[in-house]
Design goal:
Blueprint: H1 20-38, H2 40-51, H3 61-68, E1 71-77, E2 80-87, E3 93-97, H4 108-116, E4 120-124, H5 139-152, E5 159-162, H6 165-168
Parallel strand pairs: 3-4, 3-5
Antiparallel strand pairs: 1-2, 2-4
Helix pairs in contact: 1-2
C-alpha cells in the first residue's frame, strides 16, 4: 500500500491584537495563580473580592422606557436596599431574574410577549446591580434577597425565568 506524501507546511507566526481587557484579565489570572502558590489564603481573598464586585450596567433608552412602565418600590430585603418592579397582568405571575453585571432592563425584549400573553411580571435588581444597593454579589445573597421578596407578595409568581446568577438563585 502506498502512502501519499504531503508537502511540509511551514508554520507562520500570527501576531494577535490584544485588547486592554484581554491584557487585564490575563494579567489578573497570572497574578492569582502565582499568588496562590505562595499565599493561598490571600489569593483566595483577592479572588473573592475581584469576582464578587460587579460593574453596574448602564441602561439604554429601550431598557429605561421599559422599566419606567413598572410599579417600582425600593425595599430592604435581607438587609440590602432592593429595587423591585411589577407590571400587573390578569394571568399568572412570572418572575424574571437577571445575571451577573446586568439589571432588570435586560428583559425588555421579552416584555411584550409576556405582557400580550397576560402575565403579571415581577422582577428585582440583584444586590450590587441596577438600582439595588450593596457592593457585593453572591448567589447566596441573591437567594436570600429573593426569599425575602417572595414573602412580601400575596400571590408569588408561578413561573420563573433566570439567566446566569439569576438562574442559580
Amino acid at each position: 500500500m502506498k502512502v501519499a506524501r504531503h508537502p511540509v507546511y511551514f508554520s507562520t507566526f500570527v501576531f494577535m491584537a490584544f485588547t486592554k481587557k484581554d491584557l487585564i484579565i490575563g494579567g489578573g489570572s497570572r497574578l492569582l495563580n502565582g499568588t496562590s502558590r505562595l499565599l493561598p489564603r490571600q489569593a483566595g481573598r483577592l479572588g473573592y473580592r475581584l469576582l464578587s464586585r460587579p460593574r453596574r450596567a448602564a441602561l439604554d433608552a429601550l431598557s429605561f422606557d421599559f422599566i419606567e412602565q413598572a410599579e417600582q418600590k425600593n425595599i430592604k430585603l435581607a438587609g440590602i436596599p432592593t429595587q423591585t418592579y411589577h407590571w400587573p397582568g390578569k394571568g399568572p405571575g412570572v418572575l424574571l431574574l437577571h445575571g451577573w453585571e446586568s439589571c432588570t432592563g435586560r428583559w425588555y425584549e421579552i416584555y411584550e410577549y409576556l405582557n400580550e400573553a397576560g402575565f403579571s411580571i415581577y422582577d428585582i435588581d440583584a444586590p450590587a446591580h441596577g438600582r439595588s444597593g450593596g457592593d457585593n454579589f453572591t448567589v447566596i445573597e441573591y437567594t436570600a434577597v429573593l426569599s425575602d421578596y417572595l414573602k412580601t407578595l400575596d400571590d408569588p409568581p408561578r413561573y420563573w425565568v433566570g439567566h446566569s446568577g439569576g438562574g442559580m438563585a
